[in-house]
Amino acid sequence: MAVIGFFDSGVGGLTVMYEAMKQMPEDQFIYYADTDHVPYGIRTSEEIYCFTRRAMDFLMDKGAEILVIACNTATSVAIARLREELNIPIVGMEPAIKPAVIRYPEHKILVCATPMTIEGDKLHRLLESEHASSDNVDLLPLPDLVKWAEQGIFDPKTIVPYLWEKIQSQNYTAVVLGCTHFTLFRDSFRQLLGDRIIFIDGTTGTVNRIKTLANEIPTAAEPQTAAKVRYFQSGREVKDKDTLTFIQNIYNRQTILDEYIKI
Ligand code: DGL
């Protein structure tokens, strides 16, 4: 049994933790959403580093044994420095460009992320190492989706016109969802790009990595009796019914979208 600390600027990381909780029924989870400072994608690197460091310290204080930065933006900016500073395994997320170009080398791929991730050196180093160029990969910053997810706005009537304005071509085989919030909008992407569009995100790889690390942690002598999952917003524990219902609705949305995308 391990205690896993999840962090994101808001609700996006819940999509990853949802999958981890399904696959790791024995483990405990703590989720920290930095709702006071979301969205991160338009902030400075130093701000993002400071907010992320604060969240890491908080999660360690609460007993986390593995930290997961379920946020591509915070990973891009802060993970290298945090790994140097902290003596704990830290799992990060980056746009899943590698599996996309390996699977679809001759096809056109769209990579969507926050403006900060798209501009970041980390992404450009990744593109270089995968020999990805504008011949096969288009980069697209989508600043507004995070804000809508935080407000619980997912209606394709609002989202599709926005995507239509931003996405110039429909000739993509696959979309890399390089922001954990974007997974929640797969129905709108699909409405615009067609039923055959393939979604690639970092969830599976991240959950596999967490499971490997969790197996390496020695089992606690005393069985833990704490709750399976606890939620915090910028350090304050979430106890009110409305917010817990909002979180549950995000999980429900993931279940519905997973089914819808399989069809
Ligand atoms: N979920 C974060 C990501 O994966 C969103 C960052 C933001 O708050 O803009 O990049």
Q: What would you note in describing this structure?
A:
- The protein has 263 residues and is an alpha/beta fold.
- It folds into 2 domains: 3-93 and 203-260, Rossmann fold, CATH 3.40.50.1860; 97-200, Rossmann fold.
- Helices cover 48% and strands 16% of the residues.
- The chain is built from 11 helices and 10 strands.
- The protein has helices at 14-23, 45-61, 72-85, 97-103, 115-119, 121-129, 144-151, 156-166, 186-193, 203-216, 241-262, and strands at residues 3-8, 28-33, 66-69, 90-91, 109-113, 137-141, 174-177, 198-200, 229-233, 236-237.
- A 6-stranded mixed beta sheet has the order 4-3-1-2-9-10, with helices on both faces. A 4-stranded parallel beta sheet has the order 6-5-7-8.
- A hairpin with a 2-residue loop joins strand 9 and strand 10.
- Helix 1 (14-23) crosses helix 10, helix 2 crosses helix 3 (72-85) and helix 8 (156-166) crosses helix 9.
- The protein is globular and about 50 Å long.
- The two termini are 35 Å apart.
- The model has no long low-confidence stretch (mean pLDDT 94).
- The structure holds D-glutamic acid (DGL).
- The site of D-glutamic acid has 17 residues, from helix 3.
